[in-house]
Amino acid sequence: MRTEDGYIINKCLNGEATAFGLLVDKYKEGVYALAYSKLRNFHDAEDVAQEVFIKAYKKLRTLRRWDNFMAWIHAITSNLCKDWIRERSRRPDREFVEDQDPATLVYHSMDSYRESLVFKPLHEALDSLPKMHHQVLTLHYLGGMKIREIAGFLGTSPSTVARRLREARSQLKEEMLAMMETTIEQQKLRSGFTFRIVEVVKRTRIKPAPRMPWLPWGLSAATGVMLTIMSFSSNLISFNPLNLRPATLGEVKVVDTGEIFVDAFELPKMPLFSGKQGDNDLNRDKSEETQWVLVREGDLQTDFFNVCFFDDHLGWAVGFAGPGVRIAYTKDGGKNWTGQSSGIFHELYDIVFISKSEGWAVGGTGGLPGVSGSIILHTDDGGEHWTHQKSVAEKDLQSVFFVDEHEGWAVGNGGTILYTGNGGAHWVTQVCPTENDLKGVAFVNSEEGWAIGAGGVILRTTDGGTNWKTQNSSTVTDLAGLAFVNAKKGWIVGRSGTILTTDDGESWVAQDAPTRNDLHGVAFADENQGWAVGDNGIILHTADGGKSWIVHPSGVTNWLMGVSCAKGNVWAVGSMGVVLKYTSQTVGFGETGVVPRLRSATAWGQLKRS
Question: What pairs with residue 418 in β-bridges?
């Protein structure tokens, strides 16, 4: 009996909506895989998966046996897929087109067209298999499910699943099986899926739980007592009775579900599954708790991946701000954002402005298999018009940096480094000593600069990129963001709370961080004042150049992807388009707005598809 599911459902039905995130995180991959096996379209499968969990939450009280949640969610998925196919087949194309918003229609049409071309061989191969063989293959590879889990999901025996999986593999050629594994691995659910569902259900009212004659009182009570006891243990580092996939522990005092933190059991003084690692009261800056203000609340249509502010009012962000919109603009300090037309359907990961009018943005295809090509955009009128600049890179560009209106660099996947000396009219490739993905770049002048990336890679140039040399980082952790205040002083952040610093531009040492969450962006105002942002709403602050970092309570659990400083203000942006603002009376940024070298660099493209 799946008493852990029953315990969580009971919490949901008694008003703790965020506990539903535990069930979403546990079953989302299987639901997504099942939907794809029936719909043959990754975008449609994700839409249906989201609808499945929202419907399940609304109907949660109707589930008679709580330990049957997995089978129940399978039935909901199958029925919604049938409805989806039936609805599409009933509506003439002309009627469907007339009902759509033009921007939405173009966006989805482009995605569907591109997917149909790229995945046609895969779809044909899967369609050649018997239905049940196709289904177990998809659940295994796309859903990441083991044989026993598939058996429980489909209501059949493990031996039957094993046989079907073996027969399906034998019917596919080796090269097609390899293609399927690669394709499916790159089409995992986007990060933030669970968070989005939880945000919806938090606003949905359901009837309270009835008495539970079908759930033995002793089992449910024992589970609750066990979980509560575990929450008070200071020596247990990773206890996981819900059999959830592991993840970083404890930056906010809530339950870690693998994708999001959910305050499922209302233990406000300590995390439910935790040790003494990560955030705690000693790491919190209690004197600053009211300094960060949520100036833009999140919504389901928006994600911000990076941000650049020029002054205390004017800023730009890249991400998703609506169908076909990849760049957003604010002129009131981040409270309101307006989409700027870029004419692209690529993903943009980084943006930089050197004045109120001139800026650049870079991105790519998001790793879509079979599709290559980077993108560079330029504006000289504050973003009212964005124009394409010819990129010589075949792979996604992750970060861009300009020291003035002429000289700039862009770095990206596969060790790509581009340089322009004429504002991007012509870009050329620079020789890179690594093939690792590069995720950030920063220069302090036209000669001295650094690039960072996967596997702990740090590169330095002292001649504008004619020669790039590898520096020792003493880590193999992926590095994501960097900031320099002069030719000698800089910081780098990355996965698992990694923070590195240099005092001479050559050697790097680690700084202690009060978190193990992944950090994505960093910005410094001067040699002392700096901020780093990352997963689960984590914001770190230092007032002594990183000798000590403290947690700034953000009040959100969104992924924070980018951070920017300008004229005494700091902004952090992230998933669901949240914007946080911090104002300090002690931090100055000069009279000309943000200095480009203070801007953080991140690499959302590599994180987005988890």
Answer: 410, 429
The continuous run of DSSP H or E covering 442 comes out as strand 438-443
β-pair partners for 428: 419
Residue-wise pLDDT for 202-252, tens only, equals 888 876 655 444 444 444 444 454 444 444 443 333 333 333 333 332 333
**Are the beta carbons of 305 and 325 closer than 8 angstroms?**
no
Residues of the chain with pLDDT under 70: 1-3, 89-128, 142-144, 173-186, 207-290, 300-301, 321-324, 345, 366-372, 584-610
Residue 518, helix vs strand vs coil = coil
CB 364 within 8 A of CB 376: no
Domains, the chain, ordered by start: 3-201 (1.10.1740.10), 282-608 (2.130.10.10)
CB atoms within 10 A of CB 300: 14
Alpha helices in 119-216 (DSSP H): 120-127, 131-141, 147-154, 158-171, 174-186, 193-201
Burial class (CB in 10 A: 0-12, 13-18, 19+), 380: middle
- The 10s digit of each residue's pLDDT in 447-495 is 999 999 999 999 999 999 999 999 999 998 899 999 999 999 999 999 9
Question: Quick one: which of 515, 456, 440, 444 has its CA closest to 484?
Answer: 444
Name the strands in the sheet holding 292-296, side by side, starting at the edge strand that comes first in the sequence.
292-296, 579-583, 569-574, 560-566
d(CA 585, CA 543): 13
Which residues have CB under 8 Å from 145's CB, separation 6+?
29, 30, 33, 139, 153
In 3D, which of 186, 253, 263 has the Cα closest to residue 606?
Answer: 186
Which among 222, 254, 224, 236 has a CA at the least distance from the CA of 22? 254
Q: C-alpha angle 478/482/484, rounded to 5°?
A: 150
Burial group, residue 592, by CB count within 10 angstroms (0-12, 13-18, 19+)? exposed
Q: What is the DSSP letter of 409?
A: E
Residue owning tokens 């790793």? 367
Token readout for 121 is: 């061989």
